[in-house]
Amino acid sequence: MAPWRVLLAIAAASLVPVAAAAEDTIKIGFPMPLSGPASVYGVPVAKGAEMAVQEINAKGGVLGRKLELLTRDSKASADEAVRLARELIIKDNVDFLVGTLTSAEAPAVSTIAKENKIVFLAPTSKTVQLVSPANLHPYIFRLASNTDIEGRTGASIIAGWKDVKRVATIAPDYAYGRDAVGAFVDFIKKARPDIEIVDQQWPKLGQSDFTPFITAQMAKKPDAVFCDVYGGDFVTFAKQAAPLGYFKAINNRLVDGGEVGTTDEAQALGKDYPYGIWSDAYDPVIWPENEPAAHKTYIEHLKAFTKEKYGSGWAIMGYASILALTEGIKKAGSTKSDKVAKAMLGLPFDTPIGRLTFNAKTHETEMGEFWGQMVKDDRYPFAVMKNPKFLSQGPFTQ
Amino acid sequence: MADVSFLFGQFLGGLTTAMFLFLIASGLSLVFGVMRVLNFAHGSFYMIGAYLAWQVAQWLGPMLHSFWLAALAAALGVALLGGLLERLLLRHIYGREELYQLLLTYALVLILGDAAKAIWGTHQLSVSRPPGLAGGIEMLGITLPVYNLFIMLIGAAIAVAGWLVLTRSPSGRMMRAAALDREMLGALGANVGVLYTGMFVISSFLAGLSGALVTPIQSIVPGMDVEIIVEAFIVVVIGGLGSFWGTFWGSVIYGQVLSFGILVLPGFSLFSVFALMAVILIVRPWGLFGRPLR
């Protein structure tokens, strides 16, 4: 055969299966911040989703078809997430949308999902606005907890500290921080009418110097603090607050609802972590006692998949989102968004952190998180959560 | 409320913010003042400095003085990078419209941001305070972290050194001459090319140094470059574009307005700073210490 014929044959042979595979896969559009400050979480969430897709495909996929994840960088911007969602729907013909990280992106993409009648599952956005009665539509679903649950649970912890009378709050100045602190204040006032809110600070997201906020708060002499500063901001906040004597002044009675109880923050801060504070995590990753077997297997896979020593507490959100969607497709027996959306109402699904169910009314799992005190553990060079406890609603709704 | 020790604490808090900003803004101001180049990539140099400091500190391990060696290595590394970029890219756009400078330096922001992501990933990183500067000292009933005090002293030292070099040294005279009329200076036999490269190296050194010095009190995350450049520009604009002392006082005012602004309007921390900038730009469009443009 002449060389050009060989080339042609190779080209033809390589084209055919690709084209066939592309037709057969179930396409999931996945806009997620992969650059900028939010990528600290966006990247592990995307990794978790990739791992779930790989595992499901290894078992033969769903309805005999393989899953295909189309990951795009949303840069944590609502505009960019909307543009990507449109492009994924129109150009890439995705069957579903999963993704976005922040409370700015998710509500924006939700309107696109509604317009195009395509199922959209938000793994991490917490704002109550996302599925509030005014914004709810048949195609929007949320895996994450929400700001009401977070604020309520934080309040239940502080309410349990009987000698606390003066409480302060500090949270980033946007939808997430405002909503969570609002819920916290509502619930703490109901639970403990004797508690006074003595100070509220609102640094911006990405604040580089918290010092003035910290000194202003300390001057009001709070006994305990509810905090929603998270991610890189929390690392900055903790490092600036400690030498000012902030944590000492409140006896480490700070409850942070921004998932700084994960290995991500603990590893970043190392020995600078303010040991003794309370926080939450979707996945504590390191689970010293009573670790469920499914979680153990999952973490082993995750460590191998990401080639990381400990694994991230955020990967679970991407991972469980793909599992949830897969269950929905299975139950519907179809990849049509109309059918899958109906199937997902009231749908239970198993994850490495336990069984979750989409509430048929609110379209969210209303999941809680693991809460606990962050303590020193000689086995690890960073803080770990002592006895992670899954708190889902707080005592007030029971 | 009007407790003296509390107000003093707030003042020191504002001063800490101010001196951190001055460290980064001083290099930006220097390059604009002398070279008339608006270097958007200055924040990226700062970010690279932070990552380099972390990297070198990792390599050195728990060695004594490892932080200081890491900070110095980071500053020198960034100075070298700045010098290279000036020689290869920036020198082609001197004297052109600002738009070209904006495009080029913005392109550098994107390239350096992606390069940092490729090398160091998207994890948040952190460096501990150097031993010896980890504690705090009691002053008038408030605690001042020693590291913050150290930063204030460094800021003041850079301000004084910058002023001395600019006003009292032969090279400072050259710099001021270059700011006024570059071509005339060249015609008089001065080597303007070397002068510009030197300026840019010094500015990059300051950016790298400030990036390294903030690592003990800030997280190192992707996007810290863009976050800081906005604040640095506000400070430079308030003080007057190109005025070195203006940048110093701009930083001080920014810190105090932020610090006391949150006492008056607790929910509007951003508002007070931007309102200040708006007012100054209306009253004195050329900034507090700048000269009106011809």
Can you describe this structure in just a few lines?
The complex is a heterodimer of chains A (398) and B (294). Helices cover 42% and strands 17% of the residues of chain A.
**Estimated share of beta-strand residues of chain A:** 15-25%
- Helix/strand/pairing category of chain B: mainly alpha
**Largest sheet of chain B, order of strands side by side?**
1-2
Average pLDDT score of chain A: 91
Oligomer status? heterodimer
Rg of chain A, nearest Å? 22 Å
Major sheet details of chain B: 2 strands, antiparallel
How many β strands of chain B by DSSP?
2
Biggest interface and residues each: A-B, 47 and 54 residues
Write up what this structure looks like.
The complex is a heterodimer of chains A (398) and B (294). Chain A has 13 helices and 14 strands. Chain A has 398 residues and is α/β, with parallel strands linked by helices. Chain A is globular. The model of chain A is unreliable at 15-22 (pLDDT under 50). In chain B, 72% of the residues lie in helices and 3% in strands. Chain B is built from eleven helices and two strands; from the N terminus they run ααααββααααααα. At the A-B interface, helix 2, strand 7, helix 7, helix 8 and helix 10 of A face helix 1, helix 4, strand 2, helix 5 and helix 9 of B.
